[in-house]
Amino acid sequence: MRGFVANTDFDWFAFLAARQPLEEVNFWQPSGGDAFRALAPGEPFFFRLKKPYYTIAGFGLFARHEVVSAKLAWEAFGERNGAPNFAGMCERIEKYRRGQSADPAKQYKVGCLMISQPVFFAEQDWVPEPADFSRNIVRGAGYDVFEGEGRRIWEACLERVRAHRVPLAAEEEAQWAEVAEGPRYGAPQIVRPRLGQGTFRVAVTQAYHGACAVSGEHSLPVLDVAHIRGYAEGGPHDVRNGLLLRADIHRLFDRGYVTVTPDFRFEVSGRLREEFENGKTYYALQGRVIQLPDRTIDRPDQALLQWHNEQVFERGAA
Length: 318
What we know:
The protein is α+β, with helices and mostly antiparallel strands. About 30% of the residues lie in helices and about 20% in strands.
């Protein structure tokens, strides 16, 4: 199992540390960059503070990486980007984008390293950085957490969780207990990260290329990430439980006026015509195969679509 020691902005760290417990944070990269392949989902991501600290000040579980617009990153994560507002986030991004062309419209892309179950240590609990970590490294470095310095920092971080020296959200307690209370000297285990709402929003938006799965609408302000099975009904924040829908279609989907069948066709209930004597816009889309994500693993779960068909959708008169 791998871990990644990432150079971390102190202001980002301090802002989020003061607001924990948090279910997720966005560790953004100012220039987007290439795909992040250093970790698999569930592997540890360590926050290393740079000069003058040179220390591991917290960690979390890597969940997902996407390159998105700064505006989408803010809409998805808000203050969990480590800034009080969008302007403040952009100010920090631009500090690190020196030498690149300015963009008054803030349309630039950023890399989103989405970190689940983050914890931020008090100063007395900071962990010494790896002895072989080069001060010339710009972004960070990967370590094997089965041995050597990687194992030392991983076990030191888990000890702080075991000792309850970090605040945890109630829903994170059980999962961290499973990790932290496991065998002290056994092989480290990858943990399936709990995706938060922000990660879910970014992941689904990217999977559908920023377009409504039904209408093809691309205007971000009118697009919603919809759960197929609602979160309150036990549906997970998982890409396979999500659809990117125009806001009006999302409302109809949640209220059972429309659905997507297990063979990915859009279906409209007769209730729209019965109750409102209208719905031409939506009946024109009847039977259309929705636009699907490129990757099979990101496509809607057919069992969840069946659940929505049976439990939420009401067909009404033919």
